[in-house]
Amino acid sequence: MAEIRRFEGKVALVTGGATGVGFATARRLAGEGAKVVITGRRADVGEQAARELKGEGLAVEFVAGDVASEPSVKDIFAYVDRVYGRLDILVNNAAAFQPLRFLGTDRKEWRKVFDIIVDGTYFCTQEAAQLMAAKGIRGHIVNVSSINGNRALEESSHYNAAKGAMDQLTRNTALELMDAGIRVNGVALGFIETPMSVVDGVNEHETEWFKSIYVGRGKIAQRRQGQPEEVAGVIAFLCSEDASYMCGAIVPVDGGLSITF
Q1: Phi and psi at residue 232, in whole multiples of 5°?
Q2: Residue among 79, 122, 159, 245 flagged as catalytic
Q3: Does domain 11-190+227-256 have CATH number 3.40.50.720?
Q4: How far apart (Å, rounded) are the C-alpha atoms in residues 93 and 120?
Q5: Is 84 a catalytic residue?
Q6: Per-domain boundaries in the chain
Q7: pLDDT tens for residues 34-63?
Q8: pTM check: above 0.90
Q9: What are the tens digits of pLDDT across the range 113-166?
Q10: List of residues 6+ apart from 89 with CB closer than 8 A
């Protein structure tokens, strides 16, 4: 089978790209020919991730930045423009989660999640779209959301509300940016094996409730958690011309979790 190089000559930016889904997505896009910039707040983790991918012969570099800070986001995109002169793909993947009861959530904790997921998506999408439009690039933006964006779950009001807002940003920016030839879509994740699966030192996929309800009873139709690489494949599809007639879609990548009740 011939090697797939759908992103030859393209430049991609992946936020939160040092671990989990972001890391797998950076690897997938670079593996198909893209030059990829990953960004995040932790320089040590990001630089190690970039070294690992470069060691695989992939064109990946790390640029430190905080998507919750508008000046930091502007610096990231200014760097991309200065070094690469273009941007074809943006993957808004950065997120944060800590389980909190609603009545125990203070404004600082609430804002932290919204600053990263909602404001970060807003800042990055606006900068990306302006750069793409200025260069006449018919680019692709993918927002990494969650099936919790339209569901309720205890200790997750802040996260679920933020992901719901991200989904609305996906739909509205898809509508407004289409005139510039920029396609915006999203993925809604279920249980994926990433560092965010570990809360207070416990991997939720190893708990009895997950094994009993989601696996044993088939709450997840495929009876297992997903892998970051499985999400990366869908994101790569949405960033390619194979998805040319998709606009404002939010694709569930959840092993069938959202079809059960």
Answers
A1: -60, -35
A2: 159
A3: yes
A4: 9
A5: no
A6: 11-190+227-256, 199-225
A7: 999 999 999 999 999 999 999 999 999 999
A8: yes
A9: 999 999 999 999 999 999 999 999 999 999 999 999 988 888 778 899 999 999
A10: 7, 10, 11, 12, 13, 29, 34, 139, 140, 141, 142, 239
